Amino acid sequence: MEQQIQESTHVTINTQSESEQFLTFMLAGEEYGVDILRVQEIKGWDNATEIPNTPDYIQGVLNLRGTIVPIVDLRVRFELEKIEYSNTTVVIVLKVKGDEKEKTIGFVVDAVSDVYNIDQGQLKPAPDFGSAVRTEFVKGLATIDEKMLILLDIDHLVDADIKLNSSEVTH
Amino acid sequence: MSIDLSQFHGVFFEESFEGLAVMETELLDFDIAHPDHEIINTIFRAAHSIKGGSGSFGFTEITNFTHVLETLLDEIRAGKRNMTQQDIDVFLRSVDCLREMLTSARDDTALNHDLVQSLQSELETYLDQTDTTDTQQDNQVADADTSAGKTAEVSWHIRFFPHSHLFQTGNDPLRIIRELEELGEIKSECDLSALPLIDGLDTEQCYLNWNITLTGNINEEQIKEVFEWVEDDCDLSINLLNSREETQQNANDNNNGEQQAEAVVVAKAEDRRQGEDRRKTDRRSAGNTESTSIRVSIDKVDALINMVGELVITQSMLGQFTEQVDIANHEQLNEGLKQLERNTRELQESVMQIRMLPISFSFNRFPRLVHDLSKQLDKKIELKLSGESTELDKTVMEKIGDPLVHLVRNSIDHGIESPEVRQAAGKPETGLLHLNAFHEGGNIIIEIEDDGAGLNKDKIFNKALERGLVSKDETLDDDQINDLIFRPGFSTADTVSDVSGRGVGMDVVRRNIKDLGGTVGVKSVEGKGSVFRIKLPLTLAILDGQLIRVGNQIYIIPLISIIESLQIQQEQIKSIVGEAEVYRLREDYIPIIRLHSIFNIESDSTRLEDGLLVVVEGDRQKVGIFVDDLLAQQQVVIKSLETNYQKVDGISGATILGNGTVAMILDISSMIGLSKNTQHFNHIEHKAA
C-alpha cells in the first residue's frame, strides 16, 4: 500500500493505468493540473482566519463544515506576482498524503479550467531549468490541443512546507 | 438443538475479568481484625460465577482451579476457618493466576501450567489443614452441607414481584418456586389481584406475584442464588422471619446476633449485590431484553459530538441571521428558532455526557498498587478513596492514569515513613493515603494526600543547588521551594529504587498534566504530610473561553488561565532596560505581552493605555496580555490545527465561532515562551518559503 502511494507520487511514469484524469486550473496565465481523485471540493474564496507567524503563502484557515482547513495561496507559494482576489478566484480543496496520514488543504488559484484525460505516455518529464525555476514539485508536462499543462506533485509540494508525517513538535 | 457456545465466550471472559476485579477489590478491602461476612460472600460469588461459566464453556483447568478456591472460600464463609493475611495473599495470587489462565484461554496462548499447578496444590494444602473431607461438593448441595449443623432452622419471608416482562427474558416463576421447594419447606401464596379479565389478558405478560415463606437450613445466599437470573426483572425482598437458634459464626462475630442486625445485613447485601452485579446481569440479559447499557466505539461517539458541535454552530448562525432581518411578522419562526436553540444546547450537553466516566475507573487500580507497594517497602498504609463517582472525560481519564500512579508511588515511597519512624515521631503506625476527587468550577480537582514526612525544604533546596536549579543567594518562599521538585532532573530519593527516584518523575508528571490543560501543585508541612493537588479541565473537547480582539482578529483565551482583566493605567507601566515592559499590579510587577507584536498583526493602537490588559497565569508565571478589546465569553469546541496543518507556537487549537469563521485559541505558556524569544530577537523570523 505504502509502496503504491510512493510509486504514484514519486515515479513520473506509471505504466499500469493507461490514462488519468486531471483537474486543471489557471495561475498567472499558466495551466496547472492535479490528480482529480485528490480533489475533495472546489469552493469560492472566503476570508480565511490568519494563523500568526506562518509563512506568507499560508493564507490562514477556513471552516469546512467543521474541519479546520489551512489555505495555501499558490501564487505566493510559487513566488508569482500577487493579484487581488476576484470572483473567479477559487479554493481547490485537496487531499494530500504523507506516509502516515492524510491532510486536507485548500489551494487558492486564479480560476478552475477543465478536466482532461491524459495518457501516461503523453507525460513528459519537466526539463531541468537549474535552480532558476522551481520544478521539483512538477510531476510532468503534458500537451493538450497545443497547450502545455503543468502537472503538480501535490504531496511533494506540501511535504516541503507542512510536516505531513510528524505532528509532534517538541520545544 | 445444539447451540454454538463460542459466541458467548466474549461475554464470559468479560464477566470473568470483572469478577476477578471485584474479588481483588474486596480482598484488599478485607479487614482481618473485623471480618465482614458480606465481603467473603462477594468474593465467593465472583469465584462461583467464574467456576460456573468456565464449566459451561469447557475450560476445565479454570473450573478445577476455581473449585479449590471456592471450596476454601466456602469454608471461610461457613466460619470453619478464619481469614488470615496469608490467606489474602494466596487469594490475591490466585486472582492473578486466574487472570492469566483466562487471558491464555481467550487469546489461545500458552499457559504456564506448572505455576497453576503449584498454586493449586498450595490451595489444596490449605484445605487439608482443616478437616474438610468434602471437596467434591457442588455449589448448592455444598452450601447446604457445610452449613448443616452450623445454621439452625430459620424461616424466610420472600416477596417475589416479577416485572410484567419476565416471560420475555425466558424465565419462569414456576421453575423458580420449584427450585425454592428443594431448599426447604415452602408455603407460597399467589397474588392474583393484578390479573386482568380473560379478554384483556396478554399471555406474554406476567401479572402474578408471590408471598413465600420458606423454612429450613437455608441462608440468604442460597435463596438469592435461585433468583439470580431474574434479580433485575423483579422486585425481590428476602427477610428473616425468625431464627430459633443463632448461627454459630454469628455468635462469634456479634455477641448477640440480633434478628434485626441480620436483616439489615441482608438488605445491605442486596443493595450491594445489585449495584455490583448490575452490569453483569445487564449484559447477560442483553440477548433477550432491552439492556440498560451498551458498548459503543469511541469513534462513533466522537463523530456524534462533532456533528452536534456543527449543529450548535449552524443554530447560532441562524440565530445571528434572524437578528439582522426583520422577522417581527414571523412569530412562529422566532418561536421555532428559540426552541431549536434550547434543544441543541440540551443535545450538546447530553452528548458530552456520553464521554464522561466516573473517576473510579482510574482509582480502582490503587488498592492493589498500595497493597503491593506497602508490602514491598514494609510500610503500613491505609488507602482512603473518596469522590470516586466524580465524572470526567474518558480521554482525560486515560491520560491522567500514569501521572496519578506516579504521585501515589511517590507518596508511598518518599512520603509515608516506616512504622518504626512513625512511632518514634508519635504518629500512628499506619500511614494514611487519601485520594480525593471533586468538581470545582468547570474543573475536576484530584488530591493525593498523605500524612507522611512531608517535603524536607532544606534537602530540596540543597539538592536544587547541587543540580544548579537555583543559585545560592536566591531566597525562595516555602511554596517556591516545594515547587522545585517539579523541575526537570530533580530527585531527592536517597537511594534509587524501582518504586520511584529515577529523577525523571515529577517534571514528567507536571508536563503530562500541563498537556491536558491542567496544573499540579504541592502543599506540604514538614513532619505532617503533603497534599498534591491536580486541577484538570473536565473535558478536552470544549473549553470556556474569553473572546478578545486585536485589530480585526479574534482570539480566545481559556477562561481557566485568566486571573483578571483591567484598564491600563499609564502611570503603572514601567520598563526595564528601556525595553521590556512591566505593569505594576498592586504589589507585583508583571511582564506585558503585546499580542500584536508577537503575532505580527495590526492592532487598533499600539498605545497601551488605549487597550486592555488581560492578566493570565501560565507556567506559574503571571503575565498581562495587551489586547484591543474584550468580547463575549463562550463555550467553544476545540478543534485541532494539527489535523490538517501543524502545531503553531502560541496557539493550542482553533474553534469555529457562531458566524462560521475560525478563531485561534491561545496557549498561554507557549505564548510566554514566544514573547521571551521576541524580546531577545525583537522580531520573529518567518520560515523561509
Percent of sequence in beta strands of chain B = 15-25%
Summed up, the domain count of chain B is 5
Rg of chain A over CA atoms, rounded to whole Å, is: 16 Å
Instruction: Record the strand order, biggest sheet of chain B.
Output: 14-18-19-17-16-15
Number of discrete domains of chain A: 1
Compact overview of the structure:
The complex is a heterodimer of chains A (171) and B (689). Chain A has helices spanning 2-10, 74-77, 154-161, and strands spanning 19-27, 30-35, 39-44, 58-64, 67-73, 90-97, 102-109, 111-119, 138-144, 147-152.
Structure description:
The complex is a heterodimer of chains A (171) and B (689). Chain A has 171 residues and is mostly beta strands. Chain A has a single domain, classed as CheA-289, Domain 4 (OB fold (Dihydrolipoamide Acetyltransferase, E2P)). Chain A is built from 3 helices and 10 strands, in the order αβββββαβββββα. Chain A has helices at residues 2-10, 74-77, 154-161, and strands at residues 19-27, 30-35, 39-44, 58-64, 67-73, 90-97, 102-109, 111-119, 138-144, 147-152. In chain A, the strands form 2 sheets. In chain A, strands 8-1-2-10-9 form a 5-stranded mixed beta sheet, with no helix packed on it. The termini of chain A are far apart. With 689 residues, chain B is of the alpha+beta class. Chain B folds into 5 domains: 5-136, Four Helix Bundle (Hemerythrin (Met), subunit A) (Up-down Bundle), CATH 1.20.120; 151-247 and 255-285, 2-Layer Sandwich (Alpha-Beta Plaits); 298-355; 358-537, Histidine kinase-like ATPase, C-terminal domain (Heat Shock Protein 90), CATH 3.30.565; 542-681, SH3 type barrels (Roll), CATH 2.30.30. Chain B is 44% helix and 22% strand. Chain B is built from 21 helices and 22 strands. In chain B, the strands form 5 sheets. Chain B has a 6-stranded mixed beta sheet with strand order 14-18-19-17-16-15. In chain B, strands 6-8-9-11-10 form a 5-stranded mixed beta sheet. Chain B has a 5-stranded mixed beta sheet with strand order 20-12-13-22-21. In chain B, strand 15 (573-576) and strand 16 form a beta hairpin. In chain B, helix 1 packs antiparallel against helix 4 (85-107), helix 2 (37-57) runs antiparallel to helix 3 and helix 15 packs antiparallel against helix 19. Mean pLDDT of chain B is 77; it is low at 131-151, 244-291, 494-503 and 680-689. Chain A binds chain B through residues 47-58, 60-63, 65-70, 76-77, 79, 103-105, 162-163, 167-169, 171, and chain B through 306-307, 309-310, 313, 553, 598-601, 639-651, 654, 656, 660-664, 670, 673-674, 684, 686-689.
